[in-house]
Amino acid sequence: MRTSVRAILAWGLSLLLAAGAMALWQQQALVRQLEEESGALNRLVSQRAGQHDAHLTALSAIASASAEPARDLFLEVASTITHFYPRIDDVQLVALDPRGPVIGTGPLAPGVADRVRAAARASTGGIALMPYPGRAHHYMMIKRSPNTPEARHGLMLGIDAEKLLDEAGAFWRRPGVVLALSMPDGRPLAGQAHPAGAVRSGRVIGSASQPLVLETGLDVGWADRLPLAPTALLLALVSLFYWAALGAWRQRARARAVAEQARINALESRLAHASRVNALGEMASGLTHELTQPLTAILAQAQAGKRLAAQGRGAELESVLEGTIAQARRASSILERFRDWSRPRPASAAAFDLRDAVRNVQALLAPKAASSGARIEFSVPGEPVPVRADPVEMEQAAFNLVRNAIEAVEGRADARIAVDLRPAAGRAVLDVADNGPGVAAGIRADLFTPFSTTREDGMGLGLALSRRLVERIDGDLDLVDGAGPGATFRMTIPLAGEPTGEERS
Ligand code: ADP
User: Fold this and answer.
1) Is residue 488 within 6 Å of ligand 1 at its C-beta?
2) Is 159 helix (H, G, I), strand (E, B) or coil?
3) What pLDDT is stored for residue 503 in this prediction?
4) Is residue 103 within 8 Å of residue 71, measured between CB atoms?
5) Which residues contact 360 (CB under 8 A, 6 or more apart)?
6) Could you tell me which CATH number the domain at 247-342 has?
7) What CATH number should be reported for the domain whose range is 2-218?
8) How far is the CA of 281 from the centre of ligand 1 (A)?
9) Among 431, 453, 466, residue to substitute to test ligand 1 (most atoms within 8 Å of Cβ)
10) pLDDT tens digits for range 126-177
11) Cβ(64)–Cβ(145) below 8 Å
12) Is 465 in the pocket of ligand 1 (CB under 6 A)?
């Protein structure tokens, strides 16, 4: 769950990064295009402006060819110019003498004629450039004619600056693109003002007589930065790549985890095998040790019996044979108990009163305790202590504990054993405590392992078997205090409900 939230966050981040890169790239591409297009437009406008100079020169030549300008020729050339170059929509030849004629393609306001005269008089040879009074988007180019201090006329071209920008190219018609032409002093001539935040470039056009300023710009919006179709395609590709890469990565991680798990399993099974082999070895050596004694006794007795038989001592032979039988029984009982430990019979569990098991153990072992001189006290509660288990097995387990306790205190002056049964926290608790020497330190670690014994005639199977029987019904058997003086073993078994009448019978 956490991983997938993280994966989705990382996916979102990668989409953001991709969109950001796209926006940056698009903006840079647009700026580059703006620069290229602006350069081309500047060249076009400069070229057009250059034509104006040529027209002025030609018209001036006509005007100053004779003392009196050839009016018809002048007008014919002027109207050809205005016809083929529609941006030049006014051509005027103004006599510097206010009483002289004004020859032009249209009527000329007296105020404008005065301006032309003033500019021509002030000219030192160059071309004067100024806004056309009263006509929006227009400017005037004024030249004296002839171009000497003895000039008689002022020659004027009226130019529509908007038309100077005509047919600039498709780029300049796209939304967000701005284009403006202004006089050298900044007065606007054509186009519109730039919106704030637009990418802009301003350059003076390449004309000495008309140093107009061509300003271009681009208002880059989000729709330009992130055009719908390419952006959607990019995001889809990034998503595809992201999830494919993540899937492959996860697949590899899973494969690595499976391989690691397999390695651990192999390791564990090797360990388990080793520990089984070890346990088997220990048991085999324990079993060998236990069986050696009765088998040696049987061998010795059989050899003695053979000798007695050869000597015809029949009466003595009988007791030797009895000893042989006893040892063979002992060997068989060792094997039988070992089998019980290693392969416990399936328990026939039924709810029964654990007090009955304790009372049976009391009946069975009280005589042994008495003959060993031990004082044994049994304490059971007044109420039943119901557990679900095999009654015989529980009796066997309790029997082993009490018998061990009796053997531990044997021969002591003040030998005491306390057997206490009580219910506590949902479990039946049976404590068997004695005041013997306590459990030998060397055996404590392996107390419940088969063949752990300190007794001459012991087999070391009693505690191992008892624990196995108790654990099968989710109980516990442990040494709670064995440091001495005395040892206390505790057996706890889950309490069951009241035994049913059927189960009791
Ligand atoms: P066995 O009685 O055949 O030796 P057990 O499994 O019953 O086998 O006991 C294993 C060993 O545990 C005994 O040999 C003895 O050393 C120790 N032990 C058991 N109960 C007591 C006890 N109450 N006090 C001291 N040592 C004990």
Assistant:
1) no
2) strand
3) 42
4) yes
5) 395
6) 1.10.287
7) 3.30.450
8) 22
9) 453
10) 999 999 999 999 999 999 999 999 999 999 999 999 999 887 778 888 888 8
11) yes
12) no
Superfamily of domain 350-504: Histidine kinase-like ATPase, C-terminal domain (3.30.565.10)
Judge whether 143 and 127 are in contact, CB under 8 Å: yes
Residue nearest atom 14 in ligand 1 by C-alpha distance = 453
> Quick one: which H or E segment has residue 221?
none
**What are the structural domain ranges in the chain?**
2-218, 247-342, 350-504
| Cβ 29 under 6 angstroms from ligand 1 | no
* Cα 423 to averaged position of ligand 1 atoms, centre (Å): 26
78-112 in b/e burial notation, b at 16+ Cβ within 10 A? Answer: beebbeebebbbbbbbbbbeeeeebbbbeebeeeb
Single-letter amino acid, residue 432: V
How far from 83 is each of 88, 154, 252, CA to CA, in Å? Answer: 8, 22, 78
For the chain, report the end-to-end CA distance as a whole number of angstroms.
56
Which 8-state DSSP code applies to residue 375? E
Model-level pTM?
A: 0.50
Tokens standing for residue 341: 């430990």
Distance of CA 435 to the CA centre of its chain: 63
Give 349's contacts (C-beta < 8 A, 6+ positions apart): 388, 389, 390, 473
**Range with the largest mean pLDDT of 166-170, 349-353, 451-455, 475-479:** 475-479
